[in-house]
Structures are given as C-alpha cells and as structure tokens.
Amino acid sequence: MMVKKDLLYVVPAGKLSKDEILSLLREHPEIKFASLVGIDLAGNDTDEKIPIKFLLENMDDFFNGTAVQTDGSSVVLTGIATLNNAKVDMLADPNVNWFVDYNYEHIDEETGKPVGTLRIPAFLVHNGVRVDSRSILATGLEYVKSELMKLFSKYKHIPGLEHVNVDEIDDIIFTAATELEFWVKTPANKAQVEELRASQVMQEQYWQRTRGEVRTAMEQALLLLANYGLEPEMGHKEVGGVKAKIDEAGHLSHVMEQLEIDWRYSTPMQTADNELQARIVIREVFRANGLDVTFKAKPIIGVAGNGEHTHIGMAAKLKSGKIVNLFAPADMKKDFLSAIGYGAIMGLLKNYEVVNPFVSATNDSLNRLKPGFEAPVCIVTSLGHSPEVPSRNRTILAGLVRDVTNPLATRFEVRSPNPYTNTYIAIAAFYITMLDGIKAALESGRTLKELEAELSKDAGVPGFYLETDRAYRSEHDVFDDYSPEERDRLFGKPPATVWENMQNLTKYPEKLAVLKASNAFRQEIIDAFKAGALLRWRTELINRIIPENLEIVKECKCLHDAANASDYDMYMWEKINSLRVYLAKDSMAHKSLFSRIKEAIQAGDYATASDLQIEMSERMVELQNLYSQYKKNMIHDC
C-alpha cells in the first residue's frame, strides 16, 4: 500500500470556510463520495456512499441535518428509534477533522489515484433531539466546563493551585489519548494456547524487533496515520505472540503476535474520532499485506488481551494565553496532585460502578478483565511511593501519570477500556464522575494532605466523601499481594457478566444520579444503552458462545484404545467425558448446562442465565485443561 503525498487525507477542523472546502474538493476529483459518520450507542459508525456532486450542491443541508437521514431502527438506538418511528437525521460536525478514506483497490481512471470517500463526523438526531455517542460526549463536556467555571467563581483559593489566579481562567481544556493494542496473524493460522502462554510468561515478545510483512505493515500504518494528522508516537510489539516461521519463498508464515500503536493526544472528541480512523487504517494496511487484524478485547482465552488505556487530562487556559494543568500541584516534589486532581480521581473511583457498564458492555470485554494479565479487576488507584519519584503500578484501574519536571504531563490513565469500548461515552462518563469528586474536594475545604489521606484511607475508616467500607488506593501488586477474597472486600467485587455489570445501573441510583445530572446521560439514553447491551449479550450467548463451546466439546474425543490404554488414560477420559456430558448432552432426566442457559434466556430469567454463564466459563476451562493433559499422555496413534 503506497502512501501518496498528492492525496488529500484530512480536511482540518475549523480552518476552512464552506467555499474553501468546496474548492478543495473540486481540486481532488478522485474523491468521488461523501459519508456522514454517526456513532450509535454501541460505538458502531455509519457509512454511506453519497456522490460528491450531491454534497457540493447541498452543503448547507449537511450542516442543518436535512440532507441525509438514516434508518435508526437498524442501528443501536434501542427503544429510541423504533420500527414505527425510525427516521434519524444526520447533522455534520464542522468542529473536528474530516478524513478521506481511500480505496486502494479501486483506481480512478481519470486521475490514476485511488477513489476516496470523504468521511464527515455527524450527530444523530431523532425527534429533534441528539441521541448518538458523539452528542453524549459533547453535552457532557459542556456540562463539566460550565460547572468548573462556577466552582472557580466560588472558590478563589484552591489547594495546590496557589500559583493560578482563578479569575484569569478564560477556558477549560480537556485532553484525551488512547493506546491501541491488537493481534495480527496470517489468515487461518492458529497457535497453541500453551505455546502463547509460555512465550508471554518468558517475556519473549515485548518490544522485540518486527520482521517481514508485519514490519512493513507497521511502518506503512505509522506513515499513513501521520498523513491523517494523528501524529503517531510509537509502534511496537506487545507481550502476546510467538515467533513466526519462514516459508520456502522466504516469507513469514504462521504469524501470531500482538502489537500496539500510539499517537498524540487531542481534544476528547477528536481523540475518539482519531481512534475510529486509526482502526480503519490499521486494518486496511495489514490486510493489504496479507495479515488479519483483530481488536477484540480477548481474542484468545488464557493469553494477553487487547487493552486501550485511556489518558485523561484537564487544563485551564488563562487570559494571557498561558496553559496550566489543573491536576498538577504547585510543588510537584511535595504533593502528588492539586485539590482538583485528588477530587477527580476520587470521583471516578467512587462512582465507577455506574461508569463500568459503559466501558465493559460485552462478553469479550469482561473476558479480558481477569487477574494475571495486567488488566484491571479492582476499583483502585495508585499515585506512587512518593511525589519526588513517580512510579507506575500496572495492576490498578486508574493510575496517576506524572513527570516532576513537566507539570503539563500530569494526567490519569484509565486501564479498563478495550479497543471496542465506546470511547465517546466512556470519556464522557470519566469526566462527569470526576466533576462530582472535584466538587466534594473543594466544598470540603481540606488541605492537600487531608485529601491524600482521604484517598489513602483503609477500608472501615469513614471518609467525608469516599465510602467507609472500601479502600481506594494501593501501591501493591493488586494481583499477587491480595487474595481474591481480600480484593473483593477492599475494592468491591467486580462484575463477571454483562448482566451483572448492567445491573449496577439499577443498584446504585445515587451514583447514577451523578451521570444524569449532566443531561448527557438522560434516562432514555441509559435505558437504550442497557437494552442494547443486554440484547447483544443474550444473542451472542445463545448463537455464538454456546455453539463455539459445543464445537470444543465435540473436539475432545477419545484418543486411546482398550489394548494400549493406561489406568491414567481411562481415569482422565472418564473425567473428561463426564464433563462433556454435563456441559452438552441432554437426557430425559437432566438437561445439559448449555440447554439450561438457553432455557433461562428464553424465560427471561437473566440472573440465572448469568450465573450459569459463569459456571460454563469455569467448566470449559476445566475441560480444556483436562483434555490437554490427557493428550500429552498419548504416545501412539489409535
């Protein structure tokens, strides 16, 4: 895939007038189509092919939402756009970059260039109200900014921000960045989980040199992302994978490895749009090099999954033009955070039960959040052992990232998102819940040391804001230094299924009220998101997960014969077959576990289905481990 300099990759936000945009498009006749890109509540992006001539003739209509409509009942706006009220208008957003998506397999005969589609980010409007993910983020940030400005009017002296005259604050700047991990492999290639796990434990892959088609694709992707203005900062191998083999032609075969690509931070909306474009670019570039890419959170059970650590920052722009980080304290060597920084992390942690459903809304996402894979399972933070020496604890939910010599770099890294997390909605939830903690911190009138003590309190110690029975900070390895029972007691028991996670939106009404106060998370939006997530959970459980598990059960076949079998072979097979029957075979007297899950779903008994899903996952791991041991004892073919 060639990265050409004479193509138009991006129309920069707010820098061109309507006439200049029209002129630019006329200068690039290879751009044949336009597409309004709306994001539904599941994070899916719309894609149409609108002849560019129609855009040129109806530019004004694109900005007032009358040019294009879509069938809202066909995207995830569950309960909002219904079959008998499905019309959704698409409203172009001129405040972000527009990208041109080129089809390198379709060359325009007139120009000799690939045919392009101008992708225009858009809002989705139903019955005159915006109902999409981009609108949730936009509304949420407007609310947070407005409330912060009110706080600055009320509290003139903020602990840790003594160097800032709050009367000089002209604007609030929100920044965000995501790190994208993904697995890449040659088509139809499979690797043994044991081999992948061994390579991971032995740390054979992380930051190793890329080779062959993987290296080529990585380099091309980085160059192409730069053309789109994403300013890539690094591409490297991640912890997962095995060493590829070389075929007779000198090409790499049996590729199975994990990669990461990072790019520069931006505004939250542009960051989310950039991430969407990055996934498109990466997938297409690697495909052009004969490689499959998956952004699934846990594509291989038992091996490292794909995270998408999300960095959240907050700054003030003064009337002089100076930028001041609102999380960073005046003395970086004396204190970890300002009062706003302490409040922000406390707000996120205290309210995370109602944030988590918007971060981890799929079976795949929750499969990743298991102990032992550097994926967070507990609602806990880490600040470092001392302000003078920044440190990073990779076992916690949200950690402080700081550089003593560069206060502007102070930010929080939320480690729970994955590449398919709806970044628009997740970032909105982060900032809104952070605001709740900021309000509490400033209203308390406490010093920085007192705020640090609140965040660092032991479970059982009352706090002015944080819950008495919970702890919220740990500088320990959360996986190795606590037992599962201790983790659950100190930091709360994490949800194991989509059903359990979505139930938090009902179990914690006072925390949900924090989100709803913004008007970004209106009740109809919350209900629609929850209904859509549960519909996908039920459907995937019955139509994908159980059939896939059934195939695994069928593949666990008897490998020994009576003449050559050892007592160990017969013992192991008896255990394996008993488990196979329990999982998958019905009798007149007993229903299999698979059948009981289906029946619970069909009866609307989702709590039972959720419990049985947990049991199914445990039993499937047990089956695969037993069968692996059994196979290893075979020394001949039957």
Name some characteristics of this structure.
638 residues, alpha+beta, Creatine Kinase, Chain A, domain 2, 3 domains, 19 helices, EC 6.3.1.2, Gln_synth_cat_dom, Gln_synth/guanido_kin_cat_dom, glutamine synthetase, glutamine synthetase activity
How far is the first residue's CA from the last residue's CA? 49 Å
Strand content: 15-25%
Q: Helix- and strand-based class?
A: alpha+beta
Distinct helical segment count:
19
CATH 4th-level superfamily of the largest domain? Glutamine synthetase/guanido kinase, catalytic domain
Mean pLDDT: 90
What percentage of residues falls in helices of 4 or more residues? 40-55%
Largest sheet report:
9 strands, mixed
Count of domain modules: 3
Beta-strand segment tally: 19
What is the alpha-carbon Rg in Å? Answer: 26 Å
Shape verdict: globular
What is the fold-level CATH name, i.e. the topology of the largest domain? Creatine Kinase, Chain A, domain 2
List low-pLDDT spans: none
The CATH architecture name of the largest domain reads 2-Layer Sandwich
The CATH C-level name of the largest domain is Alpha Beta
